[in-house]
Amino acid sequence: MPVVEQYARAHIVTDADRVEEERAAVPVILRYDPEDDPRSVRVRLPGRREWTFERALLEQGLRAPAGTGEVRVWPCGRVQAVVEFHSAHGVSVVQFESKTLLRFLRRTYMAAQPVAH
């Protein structure tokens, strides 16, 4: 099964110690590897660690607030979604266009389907 890797632009909206570069859109890597874990997705922020969490959490969070612990996702208006990442170093709040996350989810579900011969 193929790995899905999608590059996206997102805005880091965390207030604490924000630097000027973070106010602009930053490149984010969305990754899904069905061989490694078919139920999880990964999000890597620039210069930060990578978070792995349930793909279902991302899907649920596009419709209504979802998640507890390290990762939380919720819709923000009609065209955006927020993903909040918690770590020992603090909280990163990242705003995405919902259509970007939906496109990524569609690609993950296509990649996870068995290929008919």
Walk me through this protein's architecture.
Strands 4-3-2-1-7-6-5 form a seven-stranded antiparallel sheet. The model has no long low-confidence stretch (mean pLDDT 87). The longest helix is centred in the C-terminal third of the chain and has 15 residues, at 98-112. The protein contains three helices and seven strands. The protein has helices at 20-23, 55-61, 98-112; strands at 4-12, 25-32, 40-44, 50-54, 71-76, 80-87, 90-97. The protein has one domain (4-112): Transcriptional Co-activator pc4, Chain A (Roll), CATH 2.30.31. It has 117 residues and is α+β, with helices and mostly antiparallel strands.
Briefly characterize the structure.
This protein has 117 residues and is α+β, with helices and mostly antiparallel strands. The chain is built from three helices and seven strands; from the N terminus they run E-H-E-E-E-H-E-E-E-H. It has a single domain, classed as Transcriptional Co-activator pc4, Chain A (Roll), CATH 2.30.31.20.
What is the mean predicted local confidence, pLDDT? 87
> What is the CA–CA distance across the termini?
14 Å
Count of the separate structural domains: 1
* Strand order within the widest beta sheet: 4-3-2-1-7-6-5
Sketch the major β-sheet.
7 strands, antiparallel
Radius of gyration in whole Å, from Cα?
14 Å
Return the CATH architecture.
Roll
CATH superfamily: Sporulation-specific cell division protein SsgB
> Into which percent range does the helicity of residues fall?
10-25%
Q: State the low-pLDDT regions, or none.
A: none
DSSP summary: helix tally? 3
- Oligomer status: single chain
Order of helices and strands: EHEEEHEEEH
Number of strands: 7
How large is the share of residues in beta strands? 35-45%
Which structural class best describes the helix and strand composition?
alpha+beta
Shape: globular
The third-level CATH topology is Transcriptional Co-activator pc4, Chain A
CATH class: Mainly Beta
